[in-house]
Each structure stands twice: as C-alpha cells, then as structure tokens.
Amino acid sequence: MAVLGGTEPKTITVPHGKSSAVAVGLAVDQSLNALRELNGAIHSNPELCFKEFQAHENITALLQSCGFTVEKHAFGLETSFVSEYGQGGRLVTICSEYDALEGVGHACGHNLIAVASVASFLGIAAALKQSGVPGRVRILGCPAEEGGGGKIKLIQAGAFKGVDAALMVHASSPLDNMKAAGAAAVGGRSVAIFQGVFTGEAAHAGVVPWNGINALDAASLTYSAISMLRQQIRPTDRINVYIKEGGRMTNIITARSVVEVGVRSLTLAENEKLQERVRNCFKGAAIATGCRIEFEQLMDTYADLHTNGPLCNEFTNIMSEHFDSDFNDDMSEPHISGGGSDFGNVSYECPSLHPLFVIPTRPTDNVHGPGFARAAGEPGAFDAAIQAAKGIAILALRVLQDDDLAQRMQEAFNAGMAK
C-alpha cells in the first residue's frame, strides 16, 4: 500500500493584502510536494468503488497535516470524508473523486481529480483566511463514481443541502469541439444500467427438449430485438448489451439467463423513455419463449450534466486571464461526453461546473484505456491538474464574494430546472 510520508509543513501562510488569485497560487505552490506525493500514492494504488480505503486515508491525512478538521466516513459512506473552512456567507463544495477501474487502474484519471480537489480546497481556505471575508468552502470525498453512484447516495444523505455551488474538474485527452486546454461547456449523458433475469425450465436437451423452456432463447431474442431497436433511436442515444449468463452445458435446456444493458441518453427524461422501450424487448422475448422475466437495477440512474452558464463563462475568463489557457465556453455547442457521471445528479441540486482539462496523451490513449492510465500518472498531467485546480479555486472565491455572479448563477440554475 502506498502511504504518504507526511513531510509537508503543518500550516500554509499567505501574506495579508494579496489578491485572491495570488493567495490561491501561493497556497497551492507551498503544498506542491505533498500534492505530488498524494497524486503518486493514489495513482500507484488503484482502488475500486467503495473500496478506496487507502486513498481515503491519504487524502484525509494530508488535510489534517495542514491543520484542517476532517470528518472521516462521512454521510454513512465508509470511504467518504468532509472538511469545511470559513464562516457565514455562501457555501461552495469541491467534489473529490478517487476510485479506479477494474483491470486498467486510473484510466479515468481520478487520481488527478483527487489532487486537484485538495489543491483547490487549500487555495480557497488560505485566501479566505488572509482576506477575512465571509464564505465557506467544503471538500467532499465522493467515492464510487465508476458505477457505484456515490454522489447520489451523498445527495440522499443530505450532503448537498444548503450548497450554493458544486465544482470539480476532470482530465481528458484532446477531443473534438474542445479547445487547446479543455472545455468548460460540458454536457454528460444520463446513464442507466440494469439487467433482466429470465427463468425457464430445465430439461434434457437430447431426450425431452420439449419439456424445457429455454432461457437462452429469451436472451438471444432480447439481444436481437435491442439490435433492431437501435435503428429507431436518436443519434445521441446509446444502448450497450451483453449476455451475462447463458447456460453451462449443451445437454441441458438453459433454465436461467441474464442480460445486462446500459442505456445512455442526452437527458434524464429521454433516458427513462428509452429504458421502457428496452424493457419491452425483454418482455416480448419472455412472452415468445414462455419464460418469466425480472428486472434488477444495477445502479442509480446517472442524470445528465447541467453546466451552469455563468460559472462556465467565469471559469473560462479566469483560465484565460491568469493562465493564458483556452477553454471552450460556448454553451450553444457544449462538448457532449459519451460517458456519464453522478455529478450530473449534483447539477440537479445546485449550480454546478465540471470542466475537462487536457493532459498530454498519445493519439491512441483513450479514457478508460491503459494508455490513459499511464498518461494520468505523468508529470504533465499533474501540472495540468494543478493549473485547473487554481482556476476552480479562484472561481469559488468569486462565487463567495461576488453577489452579482452568485445571483446570475442561481437564476441560470432555476431557469434550467424549470425546463
């Protein structure tokens, strides 16, 4: 297990009178060694959803070493945590992710999300301390983004009640409709994963096959029906399916089969409609073969991502002004990710922003592939994460201190939820 050495000084000092942006930069730069060590520890020890025990310990240890009070195992989740700094005013939550993918490690770069979230929190807290202005920042450990719906469980536990804005960043390879440094105008699909379990009747396949009810036939019919359904779905929809169980022996009529399906749509409402059409494929196959069908939801449905326009524009301006970094902020043509995230559900709770920042990759290094896992551990990826983290920290401070921005972001959120 990779464990942090704990060599970072206990306190972060920022001279009084510095601007928020300068205060953020100084605070983060003072912590670079510890942040780099944290990044390496998480990247070299990938842990699956709800089992991010070492990442949880490493992140909370670093926060405690900097003088922050940390609640471990927060909101009823063993690998969640929360720490908060400041008094009064508005509350901004920085979301931290740190789970990995089975077989390919940190091929979604969640080590970079973790280190960026900590860097942002340290920068915001230091700036609040030196300025003395009202406002609170919270870092929230969000386990199990990769299929576990950790943020949905946190929402259900009340973790986002009273939050004025939720912010995080995510690594990406260069993609279409994305500027050199990344994209702030980002949309994510709604994702649902469920399975259908067919129950038939076993019989000897060579002696009395007519006494059997073939659950594999039902699975095969379902697969074919879904394949045909794809001809009549929207270009932005995706249906991915595989037969999870289909029998064990050729001389036994299969009595049980399991088909797992992933459904992706641009919005939560469209996803729910498409799920029903997919379920009808299962039901038709059950009728045709005489099998019984039962459905099992394998995870809470991930909602689509609502990027907050004012936050998007403000972040893009910050990255251009302070870091000479070019991010796409055209809300009329957002970068629509083929994937989905439970941060989409957060964006239904409060004004939210989830920019993608580009890390150095090879042309073949795709997210959720081994090449991207390698790239996520490189120094250039760490540097890109730190820069994005500083931008998010400056944005958070503006949300806390700028009443006009806070009003505009809330009005945009209300308008989006009213649609």
Automatic annotation (TrEMBL):
Protein name from the UniProt record: Peptidase M20 domain-containing protein 2
SUPFAM superfamilies: Bacterial exopeptidase dimerisation domain, Zn-dependent exopeptidases
Molecular-function GO terms, alphabetical: dipeptidase activity
Family named by the database record: Belongs to the peptidase M20A family.
Sequence ranges assigned to domain Peptidase M20 dimerisation in this UniProt record: 198-284
InterPro entries reported for this sequence: Amidohydrolase, Bact_exopeptidase_dim_dom, Peptidase_M20, Peptidase_M20/M20A_hydrolases, Peptidase_M20_dimer, Xaa-Arg_dipeptidase
